[in-house]
Amino acid sequence: MIIKATLAAALLASSLGLMAPLALAVGGSDDTCVATPTAGTCETPVDTGGELPGAREAVARALRLVGGHGYYQLCARLAANIWGRPRSGYFSAAEQWRQMLATGNAHPDDRRPPTGALVFWETGGPYGHVAVYIGNDRIVSNDIGDTIPGEGGVYLVDFARIESQWGATYLGWAPPIYSTT
């Protein structure tokens, strides 16, 4: 635990400019959870349609990223960065969704995600797509508004735009659970 807390402190102080909440393992053998710095323990999400623990900070971070660039085909990294992580720890959004299903953390077909939830789509390719739900039927996503291929822009858009513009199939939502190993 001391090593993980030290690593978290180093990331917070690093030039990456990452802010809490970081996913920290707190006791037990399960190395995945969502912890807020004030609570210091793993928290479970609130009921669907509410707000996840730490969502206000994540939404504020997401809105600061809107208008930025450099996330071309890096949706999982964008979502992780929004939640204060340098990377997702998954090969793709599709892999992350499969892991959420396998661990019982996915909410398939639920179109009422809580604020801060990761929302997932099947895109017809091997990687899928993930974005962060910020409330009021809006998400922060990458690439969806790019006018130049490869731009990797970050956009605040309607929840339904991924389906309408890309023809993607909505899969569901999951809390931002990242491995701390």
Layout of helices and strands:
Layout: H1 2-13, E1 32-33, H2 55-65, H3 75-82, H4 93-102, E2 107-108, E3 118-122, E4 129-135, E5 138-142, E6 154-158, H5 161-166, E7 169-174, E8 178-179
Q: Main attributes?
A:
181 residues; endopeptidase fold (from Nostoc punctiforme); two-stranded antiparallel sheet; disordered N terminus
Question: Outline, from the CA principal axes?
Answer: globular
> Any idea how many domains?
1
Order of helices and strands: HEHHHEEEEEHEE
- Which second-level CATH architecture applies? Alpha-Beta Complex
Q: What structural category do the secondary elements indicate?
A: alpha+beta
Strand content: 15-25%
- What's the story with the biggest beta sheet? 6 strands, antiparallel
CATH class: Alpha Beta
Q: Overall pLDDT, averaged?
A: 78
Low-confidence segments:
1-48
Assign the CATH topology. Answer: endopeptidase fold (from Nostoc punctiforme)
> What is the rounded Rg?
15 Å
Instruction: For the largest sheet, list the strands in their spatial order.
Output: 2-7-3-4-5-6
Tell me the number of strands.
8
